[in-house]
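lol so apparently i was supposed to do this last week
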Amino acid sequence: MSDLEYSILADFYEKIERTTSRIAMTEYLVALFKETPTDVIDKVIYLTQGKLRPDYEGIELGVAEKLAMRALAQAVGVSVKKVEDVYKKSGDLGTAAQLLMQQRRPVSIVDFFGGEVEAKPLTVTRVYETLLKIAKASGPGAMDTKVSLLVSLLKDAKPKEARYLLRTITGKLRLGIADMTILDALAIAFTGSKNARDVIERAYNMHPDLGHIAKVLATEGLEGVKKIQITVGIPILPMLAERLSDPREILSKLGGKCIVEYKYDGERVQAHKKENQVYLFSRRLENITSHYPDVVEMIRNNIKAKEAIVEGEIVAVDPDTGEMLPFQELMHRRRKYGIEEAMEKYPASLYLFDVLYVDGKSLINEPLPTRKEYLKKILLPSDRIQPAKSTIAETPEEIETFFEQAIADGCEGVMCKSLQGDSIYQMGARGWLWIKFKRDYRYEMTDTVDLVVVGAFYGRGRRAGTYGALLMAAYSPEEDVFKTVCKVGSGFTDEDLEKLPEMLKPYEIPHKHPRVQSKMEADVWFVPAIVLEIIGAEITLSPLHTCGWGKIKKNAGLAIRFPRFTGRYRDDKSPEQATTEKEIIEMYHSQRKVTARA
Ligand code: ATP
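anyway here it is w/ adenosine-5'-triphosphate bound
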């Protein structure tokens, strides 16, 4: 097997560090690729990117600085204290290593016959294989193994090589070479021009492993690259959306008609299913399978295909009511231990919006309506896994109404997507086939309100057999009616949950009370009597609630977003003393405007 000396890579890194021009950077890369034997082209690319394998394989290179310093001290034959001092002065462990190695006595190794031999030059293969062993070392004694492996490399390293080895091993190589620059350089080095760049990029979008692409290109040429296909288990670069803030403009961009979907506030996931095996990849293509064992189960059981790649958003839900929670609640899943417990406390739902592959057939070039048909065919929906909520819109008003409903339901806004014949899945590209419509600001509700219970919804999970959420209304003295403004399921203690059915039982009636105006169908209706104190995140427009209907906007009322019971029963208030519709409208107008999450 032919190899490349690591010193050539180190010289290349030095040149890259000194250049400020992207063109020069590409030229250096081209020269390096031309010099690199085919056998090690993949390793050279991974090392240059400061990694060992593509990100989605999750092989972490980062060795703690302390450990690296220990190895350096041992290799140079100085104290750890000395290494620390030099590091402090130079501010970078790589530079410190280079300085220390320069001061080291030249190593002479005496061979079997008593003659002096040079240290063995480091090769790319040796560096790569050793770093891989370091990354994979685990269990008791792993730290010592890592140190001795690193010492063995450093002992044979020249000062400049040590500089880059130390940076690589501590995860700080950071040459700033983008994947796109590498693709350019590969095209030039192996095909002579940038003309083939599109073909190579297409393969990369489907199989984002630059080492693999380079290897295929170097061994089989462009014809080999053209044969690269979607592989279940390897993430595809996700399609991204453009953004507009005017529904009129959105419609005209999308040809006068589009599908409008809830834009869920969660974590994007690309789920791959291969028989019983399921892999989950994040927006940035990290493997996040271990964070969501529940989602893995849903994909395994509710996707009726042997092999499939589907896309959707994972959203945190309230375990008792099934209602959506803000994005932050999902952060509890980003941990190594205690996932089972986090899963119970912070369950997640999956809303699917696309399908890219089913049983041997790539759907990438199919228009969205066809992909949606496939999704419908393979998805067995349940409470926890469903298609993204959507509607078809042909007027700006239809988009706006759906948008308001999405916001009131806890979403960030809506996604408007083209339904035209060319509405393919654009891997890795941000384009106008998908347009996001979200708010640049939101409001903040600072005061509590006192609302009347007018209906209830049955609970699920722990709340099966009791109420999951209550339908709450404000009072309109002018009309003497109660108008709904939210459905509240949060903030209730176990004690509240026991007490509420008892309290409400005497007021239960078989139909909506004549003084109640509601667009929602509750499971149980009550005579307006009980008043509870409620706080929420903000007051928003909503097509589902009757409070303030038509007062701020045609065909919209007001809703409290993320409402929560404060724990205060307002027994001191009669329903007619509850917060009025007029007060809610005033609160809507006087809310504090805050910037929304970008
Ligand atoms: P982008 O992902 O466009 O670079 P970003 O990371 O800031 O930008 P957003 O502006 O929130 O993300 O918009 C895109 C994201 O919205 C998607 O990556 C996906 O996670 C999420 N999303 C939620 N619902 C949908 C949906 N129905 N269709 C597509 N994406 C959705």
